[in-house]
Amino acid sequence: FEIPEIDFRAQLNDEQYAAVTAQPGPLLILAGAGSGKTRTLTYRVAYLLSKGVRAGEILLLTFTNKAAKEMLDRVEELTGVEGRSFWGGTFHSIGHRLLRMHGEAIGVPKNFTILDAGEAETVLKHAVESVESSFFKNKTHPKPGPLSSIISMARNTCESIERTIIDFFPQHHDFIERIEGFAEAYAKKKKEQNVVDYDDLLVFWLKLLEEAPEVAEYYQKRFQHCLVDEYQDTNVLQAAIIDKMAPHHRIMAVGDDAQCIYSWRGANFDNILTFPDRHPGTEILRIETNYRSTPEILTMANAIISNRTTAGFDKELRAHKPSAQRPYVVQAMDTREQAQFVITRIRGLIDEGQDPREIAVLYRSHFVALDMQMELSRAGVPYQITSGVRFFEQAHIKDLVAHLRLVYNPADVTAFLRLFLLLPKVGEKTAQKLYDHTLAIAKKHELDFIDALRHEATVKKAPAASRADWEAVALTLRDMKQIADTGTPDEVVQIAIDGWYSSYLQGAYANYSNRLEDLNSLVGFAARFEEMQELIAQITLLNSETSGRMEESDEAIRLTTVHQAKGLEFNVVFVIGAADGFFPTRRSIDVGDTEEERRLFYVAVTRARDELYVLYPKMNTKGGPSMFLNPSRFLQEISTDLFEPIRIRRNYGW
Ligand code: ATP
Ligand code: MG
Questions:
Q1: Which of 240, 271, 584, 614 has the fewest CB atoms within 10 Å, measured from its CB?
Q2: Hey, which bits of 81-220 come out as E strands?
């Protein structure tokens, strides 16, 4: 297979070229936003191919699966090597792939299902109650949410529960021992139900590497080159995984300490600092030219980050683009006026010929965007939201997926409960009893679980009011199961929709037809998969990242949180809600640490290529920190020469 000649010199600057063509070995690239880190990684893949490395020998880890796909599409353009022939994606998706293939080596059966965050919390809640039945009755005890955060944090930082509580959750100090017990019970429950949570995908990956030597050796030999984007946001667990995958130290990590925004999920900037110690002979490279933004946008971004109080690598970025107008800082009277300003400007931009997909509205927290969504809908401006209620998190989608999960993995109690709780007069206790009963019947009559659901003795146990529904669900599941082996996933999904659920949906929701439309779009989605288990896993994984709509709309502007805009770029960016108490958040101000918020602000403004608007409402009409708002401290700290102030209402000056 011939790789076409690529003129690397012409498409990269000297610093990037040095990184792309560096000798194999540990390589750390530290550079600011928009300097071409992701581009450098992409060209590195192409370069390796041109040197005779095979696609199968490269592992590419990115922050979203979409980012991996975009990079590999570009590699395909450059080299002709199909993107599909690489292993590329998020830590979670690669971990999932490995676990599905090799989990049995560490006692994880092949047909496990993945719990999404909400379901994991429910399983944890049950686990806690199995140890201490009335734990949650006491209002002073931590709730399932915080318990789940503690356990997750401990696992992602590779620390004990005790250490984690002392360091991050001191308010729960009195519960250390009990929480240790809960964590164990939770692990046991998951094992019984043959389910894993998101963290397990990483934890079990590391476990595979540590406890299944034949698997570890195979992949260590296979992946001769490991490339990691956004390295500043890896946590200790992820760093340990990479280190274990690459005893050969041929790792290329790129990152920007100023963009570390996931410490609340255990991301640790020390991973960058200690990288050279963990990988002797590390070559550290820098890139100092920014190709993304105008000098004016960059100057403002540099000013914001230069005020940081925490240590970091200093990097002064030079802009490559010609000079343009300064960023605008817009003071609106309230959130409604803020939205109207944005909409008016968006209309103008689109009239001027701007591609709507190149316009983004960014915000710190979901609730800030609610007004925006409402006003956009009212104004008839199409938007695509990549956060908030996501497609796969909607109840009707989850209900349908529960059908699929149960057919595929009858041990998945969570799916069973989700589905059968929809029946009249069935509460959690009853549902659990019915589940156990069905299991017993299956055993007694040597039936498959799904067939046992329809057994006379099972049906009799269902509350009279729900018996007809029970039989209808059981019938649907049976029909699904019958073609599950020979049919395609979309056929199975279609049967689920046509079965009991559509009649349930009609009775349960006024906007029945919209929901049915969603379900039907799921059929199209399912058609892209060859195997049901792959489909189910993908849906669960999509819940953990950006996935607003099923299909990208051509005409829509983008609405997204700053966290989810990481690594992306747009011609025009509106950062809304840039008031103290919103961005930085009230919480960060109260605890006296706004540095992560600052980095987040830096990420926000560095998404813009040509035009940047930073807006804040002067009055808070929706409850929240206070009635009158001040501009974000990150704006107040910098020289007013760096931006163009716009006041919509004269009488509210600052
Ligand atoms: P972030 O920190 O936000 O992830 P990054 O460092 O990964 O940014 P890229 O997204 O790779 O930066 O690049 C930013 C933009 O600059 C992209 O549009 C990219 O194509 C462009 N770019 C980078 N290097 C060059 C170059 N040498 N010539 C032309 N364009 C470039
Ligand atoms: Mg990048």
A1: 240
A2: 87-89, 113-114, 195-196
